[in-house]
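Figure 2 data, in text form.
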Amino acid sequence: MSTFRVITVTLILWLVSPSIYAFFIWQAVTYLLQTLLAYLYLWRQLPKTGTAPTAQRKAFKEIWRFTAAVSGISILAVILSNGET
Protein backbone atom coordinates (compact mmCIF):
# COMPACT_ATOMS: atom_id res chain seq x y z
CA MET A 1 0.00 0.00 0.00
CA SER A 2 2.91 2.32 0.71
CA THR A 3 4.30 1.78 -2.78
CA PHE A 4 0.86 2.52 -4.26
CA ARG A 5 0.63 5.68 -2.14
CA VAL A 6 4.06 6.96 -3.22
CA ILE A 7 3.55 6.25 -6.92
CA THR A 8 0.05 7.73 -7.06
CA VAL A 9 0.89 10.84 -5.05
CA THR A 10 3.83 11.44 -7.37
CA LEU A 11 1.49 11.22 -10.36
CA ILE A 12 -1.07 13.49 -8.65
CA LEU A 13 1.58 16.12 -7.94
CA TRP A 14 3.06 15.86 -11.42
CA LEU A 15 -0.11 15.65 -13.54
CA VAL A 16 -2.91 17.23 -11.49
CA SER A 17 -1.73 19.82 -9.00
CA PRO A 18 1.71 20.38 -7.48
CA SER A 19 0.32 21.70 -4.21
CA ILE A 20 0.56 20.70 -0.58
CA TYR A 21 -3.25 20.44 -0.48
CA ALA A 22 -3.29 17.85 -3.26
CA PHE A 23 -0.57 15.92 -1.44
CA PHE A 24 -2.40 15.77 1.88
CA ILE A 25 -5.82 15.11 0.37
CA TRP A 26 -4.42 12.19 -1.61
CA GLN A 27 -2.64 10.88 1.48
CA ALA A 28 -5.93 10.97 3.40
CA VAL A 29 -7.74 9.19 0.57
CA THR A 30 -5.16 6.42 0.35
CA TYR A 31 -5.06 5.92 4.12
CA LEU A 32 -8.85 5.67 4.12
CA LEU A 33 -8.64 3.11 1.31
CA GLN A 34 -5.98 1.16 3.23
CA THR A 35 -8.14 1.13 6.35
CA LEU A 36 -11.18 -0.04 4.38
CA LEU A 37 -9.21 -2.83 2.70
CA ALA A 38 -7.76 -3.99 6.04
CA TYR A 39 -11.24 -3.97 7.57
CA LEU A 40 -12.69 -6.06 4.74
CA TYR A 41 -9.80 -8.52 4.79
CA LEU A 42 -9.86 -8.97 8.56
CA TRP A 43 -13.66 -9.26 8.64
CA ARG A 44 -13.49 -12.14 6.16
CA GLN A 45 -10.88 -13.88 8.31
CA LEU A 46 -13.18 -14.04 11.34
CA PRO A 47 -14.79 -17.40 11.95
CA LYS A 48 -18.48 -17.70 11.08
CA THR A 49 -20.31 -18.19 14.41
CA GLY A 50 -23.90 -17.40 13.49
CA THR A 51 -24.14 -14.64 16.09
CA ALA A 52 -23.57 -10.93 15.63
CA PRO A 53 -20.27 -9.65 17.01
CA THR A 54 -20.54 -7.37 20.03
CA ALA A 55 -18.12 -5.37 22.13
CA GLN A 56 -17.58 -6.72 25.63
CA ARG A 57 -17.68 -4.14 28.40
CA LYS A 58 -15.47 -6.33 30.56
CA ALA A 59 -12.59 -5.95 28.10
CA PHE A 60 -12.87 -2.15 28.20
CA LYS A 61 -13.01 -2.11 31.99
CA GLU A 62 -9.82 -4.15 32.17
CA ILE A 63 -7.70 -1.93 29.89
CA TRP A 64 -9.07 1.61 30.34
CA ARG A 65 -6.30 2.69 32.73
CA PHE A 66 -3.58 1.49 30.38
CA THR A 67 -5.29 3.16 27.42
CA ALA A 68 -5.65 6.44 29.33
CA ALA A 69 -1.97 6.36 30.34
CA VAL A 70 -0.75 5.72 26.78
CA SER A 71 -3.03 8.49 25.48
CA GLY A 72 -1.69 10.88 28.11
CA ILE A 73 1.90 10.05 27.24
CA SER A 74 1.20 10.56 23.52
CA ILE A 75 -0.49 13.92 24.09
CA LEU A 76 2.36 15.06 26.35
CA ALA A 77 4.95 13.96 23.78
CA VAL A 78 3.22 15.98 21.05
CA ILE A 79 3.03 19.05 23.29
CA LEU A 80 6.68 18.80 24.37
CA SER A 81 8.03 18.06 20.90
CA ASN A 82 6.19 21.01 19.35
CA GLY A 83 7.82 23.38 21.81
CA GLU A 84 11.28 22.76 20.33
CA THR A 85 12.50 24.85 17.43
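Caption note: The chain has one domain: 2-47+56-82.
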